[in-house]
Design a protein that fits this description.
- Keywords: Acetoin catabolism, Acyltransferase, Transferase.
- The protein is of the alpha+beta class.
- The protein has one domain (8-203): Gcn5-related N-acetyltransferase (GNAT) (Aminopeptidase), CATH 3.40.630.30.
- The protein is 29% helix and 27% strand.
- Strands 1, 2, 3, 4, 5, 6, 7, 8 and 9 form a 9-stranded mixed beta sheet that branches.
- α3 packs parallel to α5 (149-162).
Amino acid sequence: MDFTKTYNASEIKTAKGNIIIEGPILAEDLARLEFHEDLVAFRPPRQQHKALVEIARLPEGRIIVARENDTIVGYVTYLYPDPLERWSKGKMENLIELGAIEVIPKFRGASVGKNLLKVSMMDDHMEDYIIITTEYYWHWDLKGTGLNVWEYRKVMEKMMNAGGLEWFATDDPEISSHPANCLMVRIGKRVDNDSIQQFDSLRFMNRFMY
């Protein structure tokens, strides 16, 4: 698998100030930037910053950041699925997962998430991949946003659509455990039919179980 990554950047103007969205960013550049203290969705900020630097060092790892001056205020990660998940069972080199996306409360509602995804897909090498994301309602910031499960799901779906990801059916037990959970997928233009069939068999692993 060719792990070439092409850097892209975009500036967006928001009511709270201008933001640069750029990536895939090199691990050393990522390490030099400040990491906003409100980026707390997955683990304490210092630990999450360190985790992102480690992802950026992986051959397939991609981190796109939104920064205000030298401070990271949002990011999206792409890497191979967790070895314990069904999505890694096919050992597909051309299947990567959008693992995390986060934006600080100050810039929510300013299309930062959408733009992180748009900049991600500016890299033509993304056309070689099947990109998946698994959305679970228990990861969503319902309290912080004041949205209910279905409103939040609609927002998430709209944001993922901006990056070309669409809803796909699956019999994955965790996703099927609640109707708001979902699998979203973007199949690159250069992905071959064999890979698509292999991915379909990962989506429906229980179809012959009675």
